[in-house]
Amino acid sequence: MELKECMGAVEAMLFAHAEPVSAGRLAQALDMDEDTVERVLWALQDEYDRPARGLRLLRLEDKWQLATKNEWSEPVKKILDTRRNTPLSQAALEVLAIIAYNQPVSRGFVEQVRGVDSSSTVAKLLEKGLIEEAGRLDLPGHPVSFATTDVFLRTFGLESLAQLPPLHDDELPLEQLAATGELPENTLPPSEGADG
Protein backbone atom coordinates (compact mmCIF):
# COMPACT_ATOMS: atom_id res chain seq x y z
CA MET A 1 0.00 0.00 0.00
CA GLU A 2 1.35 3.45 -0.93
CA LEU A 3 1.82 6.14 1.72
CA LYS A 4 -1.13 8.25 0.51
CA GLU A 5 -3.40 5.21 0.48
CA CYS A 6 -2.22 4.25 3.95
CA MET A 7 -2.84 7.80 5.21
CA GLY A 8 -6.34 7.68 3.76
CA ALA A 9 -7.07 4.30 5.31
CA VAL A 10 -5.79 5.36 8.75
CA GLU A 11 -7.73 8.63 8.57
CA ALA A 12 -10.93 6.77 7.64
CA MET A 13 -10.49 4.29 10.50
CA LEU A 14 -9.83 7.06 13.04
CA PHE A 15 -12.92 8.94 11.85
CA ALA A 16 -15.16 5.86 11.88
CA HIS A 17 -13.86 4.54 15.21
CA ALA A 18 -14.42 7.92 16.96
CA GLU A 19 -12.77 6.66 20.17
CA PRO A 20 -9.01 6.55 20.87
CA VAL A 21 -7.34 3.63 19.10
CA SER A 22 -3.79 2.27 19.29
CA ALA A 23 -1.34 2.21 16.38
CA GLY A 24 -1.10 -1.54 16.93
CA ARG A 25 -4.82 -2.02 16.38
CA LEU A 26 -4.73 0.15 13.24
CA ALA A 27 -1.72 -1.82 11.96
CA GLN A 28 -3.51 -5.09 12.59
CA ALA A 29 -6.56 -3.90 10.62
CA LEU A 30 -4.31 -2.87 7.71
CA ASP A 31 -2.11 -5.97 7.94
CA MET A 32 0.95 -3.68 8.24
CA ASP A 33 3.75 -3.27 10.74
CA GLU A 34 3.13 -0.93 13.65
CA ASP A 35 6.18 1.28 12.97
CA THR A 36 4.86 2.17 9.50
CA VAL A 37 1.42 3.02 10.89
CA GLU A 38 3.05 5.08 13.64
CA ARG A 39 4.92 7.10 10.98
CA VAL A 40 1.66 7.59 9.09
CA LEU A 41 -0.03 8.85 12.28
CA TRP A 42 2.74 11.41 12.85
CA ALA A 43 2.44 12.53 9.21
CA LEU A 44 -1.34 12.90 9.62
CA GLN A 45 -0.80 14.89 12.80
CA ASP A 46 1.49 17.27 10.89
CA GLU A 47 -1.14 17.57 8.17
CA TYR A 48 -3.87 18.44 10.69
CA ASP A 49 -1.62 21.00 12.41
CA ARG A 50 -1.94 23.29 9.38
CA PRO A 51 -3.98 26.43 10.19
CA ALA A 52 -6.70 25.80 7.59
CA ARG A 53 -7.68 22.43 9.09
CA GLY A 54 -10.62 22.08 11.47
CA LEU A 55 -9.45 18.80 12.96
CA ARG A 56 -6.41 17.70 14.86
CA LEU A 57 -4.97 14.32 15.68
CA LEU A 58 -4.48 13.79 19.40
CA ARG A 59 -2.04 11.34 20.94
CA LEU A 60 -3.46 10.07 24.23
CA GLU A 61 -0.76 7.95 25.86
CA ASP A 62 -0.49 5.01 23.43
CA LYS A 63 -3.69 5.79 21.49
CA TRP A 64 -4.72 8.26 18.78
CA GLN A 65 -7.98 10.12 18.17
CA LEU A 66 -9.37 12.71 15.79
CA ALA A 67 -10.84 15.80 17.47
CA THR A 68 -11.97 19.27 16.48
CA LYS A 69 -9.60 22.18 17.03
CA ASN A 70 -10.37 24.44 19.98
CA GLU A 71 -10.89 27.51 17.78
CA TRP A 72 -13.92 25.84 16.18
CA SER A 73 -15.60 24.87 19.46
CA GLU A 74 -18.41 27.47 19.25
CA PRO A 75 -19.81 26.48 15.84
CA VAL A 76 -19.39 22.79 16.73
CA LYS A 77 -21.33 23.33 19.97
CA LYS A 78 -24.09 25.10 18.04
CA ILE A 79 -24.44 22.32 15.51
CA LEU A 80 -24.44 19.66 18.21
CA ASP A 81 -26.74 21.70 20.48
CA THR A 82 -24.65 21.10 23.58
CA ARG A 83 -26.58 23.41 25.90
CA ARG A 84 -26.82 20.64 28.49
CA ASN A 85 -23.02 20.51 28.80
CA THR A 86 -22.22 22.80 31.67
CA PRO A 87 -18.81 23.40 33.24
CA LEU A 88 -17.67 21.02 35.94
CA SER A 89 -18.83 21.96 39.42
CA GLN A 90 -16.35 22.54 42.23
CA ALA A 91 -17.34 19.19 43.76
CA ALA A 92 -16.80 17.39 40.44
CA LEU A 93 -13.38 18.99 40.00
CA GLU A 94 -12.39 18.00 43.54
CA VAL A 95 -13.44 14.37 43.00
CA LEU A 96 -11.75 14.29 39.61
CA ALA A 97 -8.49 15.67 41.06
CA ILE A 98 -8.52 13.13 43.90
CA ILE A 99 -9.05 10.26 41.46
CA ALA A 100 -6.52 11.57 38.91
CA TYR A 101 -3.71 11.91 41.43
CA ASN A 102 -4.41 8.74 43.45
CA GLN A 103 -5.94 6.24 41.01
CA PRO A 104 -7.20 3.64 41.28
CA VAL A 105 -9.23 4.66 44.33
CA SER A 106 -12.52 3.70 45.92
CA ARG A 107 -15.44 6.06 46.45
CA GLY A 108 -14.78 5.64 50.19
CA PHE A 109 -11.27 7.04 49.74
CA VAL A 110 -12.66 10.04 47.82
CA GLU A 111 -15.22 10.64 50.56
CA GLN A 112 -12.57 10.35 53.26
CA VAL A 113 -10.43 13.00 51.55
CA ARG A 114 -13.35 15.34 50.86
CA GLY A 115 -15.20 14.69 54.14
CA VAL A 116 -18.58 14.49 52.39
CA ASP A 117 -20.68 11.95 50.48
CA SER A 118 -19.52 11.90 46.86
CA SER A 119 -21.71 9.19 45.36
CA SER A 120 -23.75 11.51 43.11
CA THR A 121 -20.63 13.31 41.90
CA VAL A 122 -18.89 10.01 41.13
CA ALA A 123 -22.02 8.89 39.26
CA LYS A 124 -22.04 12.09 37.15
CA LEU A 125 -18.35 11.72 36.31
CA LEU A 126 -18.98 8.09 35.29
CA GLU A 127 -21.92 9.18 33.14
CA LYS A 128 -19.77 11.79 31.40
CA GLY A 129 -17.03 9.25 30.78
CA LEU A 130 -14.36 11.21 32.69
CA ILE A 131 -13.81 8.27 35.06
CA GLU A 132 -14.44 4.54 34.81
CA GLU A 133 -14.56 1.52 37.06
CA ALA A 134 -11.08 0.04 37.34
CA GLY A 135 -11.76 -3.26 39.07
CA ARG A 136 -12.01 -4.04 42.76
CA LEU A 137 -9.49 -3.19 45.44
CA ASP A 138 -7.95 -5.84 47.68
CA LEU A 139 -9.55 -4.33 50.78
CA PRO A 140 -12.34 -5.54 53.08
CA GLY A 141 -15.54 -5.67 51.07
CA HIS A 142 -13.55 -5.46 47.82
CA PRO A 143 -14.80 -1.96 46.90
CA VAL A 144 -14.99 -0.85 43.28
CA SER A 145 -12.09 1.38 42.29
CA PHE A 146 -12.16 4.29 39.85
CA ALA A 147 -9.61 5.73 37.42
CA THR A 148 -9.64 8.51 34.83
CA THR A 149 -10.28 7.84 31.13
CA ASP A 150 -9.07 9.02 27.75
CA VAL A 151 -12.00 11.48 27.82
CA PHE A 152 -10.43 13.02 30.95
CA LEU A 153 -7.08 13.38 29.17
CA ARG A 154 -8.72 14.93 26.12
CA THR A 155 -10.89 17.30 28.17
CA PHE A 156 -7.88 18.71 30.01
CA GLY A 157 -5.56 18.69 26.98
CA LEU A 158 -3.20 16.07 28.39
CA GLU A 159 -1.38 13.33 26.52
CA SER A 160 -0.82 11.31 29.69
CA LEU A 161 -1.24 11.51 33.46
CA ALA A 162 2.45 12.40 33.71
CA GLN A 163 1.48 15.87 32.46
CA LEU A 164 -0.70 16.57 35.49
CA PRO A 165 0.55 19.62 37.38
CA PRO A 166 2.73 18.74 40.39
CA LEU A 167 1.12 18.71 43.82
CA HIS A 168 3.12 21.48 45.49
CA ASP A 169 1.96 24.51 47.44
CA ASP A 170 3.42 26.86 44.83
CA GLU A 171 1.55 25.14 41.99
CA LEU A 172 -2.11 25.63 41.12
CA PRO A 173 -4.34 22.60 41.70
CA LEU A 174 -6.13 20.98 38.75
CA GLU A 175 -9.44 22.75 39.38
CA GLN A 176 -7.76 26.19 39.48
CA LEU A 177 -5.86 25.47 36.25
CA ALA A 178 -9.11 24.51 34.57
CA ALA A 179 -10.85 27.64 35.91
CA THR A 180 -8.06 29.94 34.73
CA GLY A 181 -7.97 28.32 31.32
CA GLU A 182 -4.37 27.15 31.69
CA LEU A 183 -5.55 23.65 30.81
CA PRO A 184 -7.14 23.87 27.35
CA GLU A 185 -10.66 22.63 26.77
CA ASN A 186 -11.26 20.50 23.71
CA THR A 187 -14.51 20.16 21.89
CA LEU A 188 -16.28 17.02 22.99
CA PRO A 189 -19.34 15.27 21.62
CA PRO A 190 -22.48 16.12 23.65
CA SER A 191 -22.42 12.81 25.53
CA GLU A 192 -18.88 13.48 26.71
CA GLY A 193 -19.09 17.15 27.65
CA ALA A 194 -18.23 18.75 30.95
CA ASP A 195 -20.25 17.85 34.05
CA GLY A 196 -22.15 20.15 36.35
From TrEMBL:
GO BP annotations, alphabetical order: cell division; chromosome separation
Keywords, in A-Z order: Cell cycle, Cell division, Chromosome partition, Cytoplasm
InterPro entries associated with the record: ScpB_csome_segregation (IPR005234), WH-like_DNA-bd_sf (IPR036388), WH_DNA-bd_sf (IPR036390)
Statement: the UniProt record of this protein carries the keyword Cell division: yes
Domain of life the protein comes from: Bacteria
Leader sequence segment: none
UniProt name for this protein: SMC-Scp complex subunit ScpB
Organism encoding this protein: Candidatus Allofournierella merdipullorum
